[in-house]
Design goal:
Layout (H helix, E strand, L loop, with lengths): L2 H12 L11 H10 L5 H14 L3 H6 L2 H8 L6 H16 L8 H4 L7 H12 L8 H11 L8 H14 L5 H14 L18 H5 L15 E12 L3 E2 L2 E2 L10 E2 L2 E4 L5 H8 L5 E4 L5 E4 L3 E12 L7 E2 L10 H10 L2
Parallel strand pairs: 1-8
Antiparallel strand pairs: 1-5, 2-9, 3-4, 6-8, 7-8
């Protein structure tokens, strides 16, 4: 039996029941695909349900403020996805009268929509035979065919797309695309897949050559940058604090954080006081050992300094309003742990 039929047959027997699999509404499919980029289903599912409840149509999402969207997204990471999601919702609502483009070529022009997402929407909603290629698909194709071209290289992306396109079920591309992604997520897992029950085992290159752990291949990423962050958590006598909105194109754009001192090395209390240069009543270090927050290209070594002061500027916010602001998960975890 050909790999195409094996995968679709496996999918019909083993697919998980997920809410976006019961619709061809492009808004729901688009929303699910954006949320599931860089995110596992078990983490993304509650966010999908929350977004559908809060914003049941693209018009509702378009009317929301960016801060409200970022707040609902809080904890998912890769916040550019949320900003692009909101921008695209406004474009579709205002410029396209709420109608999504109805083919791959139109979809891929939308902000935040790349080849994978455009292919998913086009095939699931409009039955266009364009193959999806995500991390799960890379893994299945690499292991089955023995493709050793790095998946994060330009030649690799081209080769895998072409191979996926060759085997897609042209009569039912939606079913096939979902089948190969589900197969990679559930059966052909990154670590310790159960090859004894795999329906592709008979012709699988990786299984017969013992290269399951070696495939797919990837070009090694550069070593992450190490940064030292010192957040100043002001607390005034009138129970106010300070949050600042991050601007620019760096990480966490448009999210809120406590005032920050970034240093070349881990600061000790005396060194921190020298850099603070603010009249204060007391300074207490919340966490003696830095909290290490790992991002794809940088590791953040973070300390939170509780600085008590008599009063703060007019920009201060009441401490009991602190959870109204969209913050990075690093800041949100501190707020929860500190229990203002």
């Amino acid at each position: 039996m050909h790999i195409t039929k094996i995968l679709t047959s496996w999918y019909s027997d083993n697919k998980r029941e997920l809410p976006w699999r019961n619709t061809k509404n492009p808004y729901f499919i688009w929303l699910s695909e954006i949320i599931l980029q860089q995110t596992q289903v078990k983490q993304g599912l509650p966010y999908y349900k929350a977004f559908i409840k809060q914003y049941p149509t693209v018009f509702h999402l378009a009317k929301a403020s960016e801060e409200a969207v970022l707040k609902l997204w809080q904890g998912l990471g890769y916040y550019s996805r949320a900003r692009n999601l909101h921008a695209t919702a406004k474009f579709i609502a205002h410029e396209l009268n709420g109608e999504f483009p109805k083919d791959y070529n139109g979809l891929i022009k939308l902000k935040g929509v790349g080849d994978y997402t455009a292919s998913a929407i086009a095939s699931i909603c409009y039955n266009e035979a364009t193959a999806v290629v995500d991390g799960n698909v890379f893994r299945v194709l690499s292991r089955f065919y023995g493709i050793q071209t790095p998946i994060n290289s330009t030649p690799g992306k081209k080769e895998f797309k072409e191979r996926a396109q060759q085997i897609i079920d042209k009569k039912n591309p939606a079913e096939f695309n979902q089948a190969i992604m589900e197969f990679g997520a559930v059966q052909c897992k990154p670590n310790s897949p159960d090859c004894s029950i795999c329906p592709l085992q008979l012709k699988c290159f990786a299984f017969h050559t013992g290269k399951i752990k070696d495939l797919p291949q990837k070009i090694k990423a550069a070593k992450p940058i190490k940064r030292h962050l010192n957040y100043i958590v002001y607390m005034s006598d009138s129970h106010t604090t300070v949050l600042e909105k991050r601007v620019g194109k760096g990480i966490w754009q448009n999210l809120y954080q406590f005032p920050l001192i970034e240093s070349d090395k881990e600061l000790q209390p005396k060194e921190f006081k020298k850099q603070l240069n603010v009249n204060h009543k007391s300074i207490v270090l919340f966490n003696e050992n830095p909290i290490v927050h790992k991002l794809s290209h940088q590791h953040l070594y973070t300390k939170f300094w509780i600085v008590k002061v008599t009063s703060l500027s007019e920009n201060a916010i009441p401490i009991n309003k602190i959870n109204d602001f969209a913050t990075p998960i690093l800041i949100k975890n501190f707020i929860d742990d500190f229990n203002f």
